[in-house]
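Dear Dr. V.,

Thank you for agreeing to look over these. As mentioned in my earlier message, I'm a first-year student in the group and I'm still getting used to reading structure tokens, so any feedback on how I've presented them would be very welcome. I ran two proteins. I've put each sequence directly above its structure. The first is here:
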Amino acid sequence: MNILLDRNSPTPIYIQIRNYLACLIQSDKIANGQKLPSIRAMSTNIGVNKLTVIEAYSLLEADGLIHARPGSGYFVNRTITPNLEPTSRSTFAPSQEVIISQGRGSFFEQYITSIQARRQGGMIEFSSGFPSTTISDNLQRVAKRALVKAGNTFLTEDFPQGQLILRQLIAQM
């Protein structure tokens, strides 16, 4: 597979690879279930580091366009997410009320708020640090996007409610 890269572009190479492959997948030029070139083959073919291809494939996986099968490689998903923009507005109906606490107040106040949130229906509550197991597959994609967006600051200590960026991305689901 040949991908023309603009090495002088302000757009990073891994984003160019991701955008090119996403376009091929969404236009059905790469069929559902088809295996993508291996990381080594792709990096050799287009003349980039393997880590660059890994980053591009990770973004495609976070977008829901491909999935990894350990020991087998990356494959195009059968269901395709049409929008790649992580900052897009929610398309779910009805509209959602989103409560993102900024971590203010005592521990007791935050604990009471979390108990009240659990009693309300239709809420995703993360105060325990773990979401409910009934949450859709979209959460996995959102978490991967948050990891990419937050970089190495994601695993640092933060408010008990969790990283603000992850809460904001979840609110857009």
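The second protein is here, in the same arrangement:
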Amino acid sequence: MAEFEDGERIVNSHDLQVYMDLYFTHQIMRRSCYQCKFSSTDRPGDITLGDFWGGAEDIFSGIITQKQKEAGVSLITVNSDKGKGIIELLTNMSVEFNWILHKCIDDSFIKYQTGLNSPTVKPNDNEAFREYMSKYGFDAILSKYAGFNLKGRIRYYIKYLANYIGLIK
């Protein structure tokens, strides 16, 4: 879902899927992401905020609903004593704001958080990707690498309709 300042929301659109497809190729990352010195659990800030990737089914079973999982689960890690104080404050505020805070009792969640394990892996063809973008522009990248063209749009809507009527899940 994409939400804009004027309140407009885009959900399950081809345009949004194109962005997600391109993002997950790891081609559009900044070069520094491929050698990020912060890709570990040893972090300089008091807390770390991020999306909770993977494992939510096991860790949050019986704690949050499927609808809440689909809406998104955030991860907050504590990196200092000051960070502990921030979490205590958030815990006290959680009822007022209808937040669900769940303390993970071990570090099994870390294996799903790739950004806490290692930098993003640079795709082998990343330099060719960047050269292509420099030569032909971003619209050409969208067409070549993310299916932002007529064929890609048709493929997206066929899958969308097949899922909608229950042919695929």
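From my reading of the second output: The chain has two domains: 1-36+119-169, 40-117. Residues 40-117 form one domain. Does that match how you would interpret it?

Kind regards,
E.
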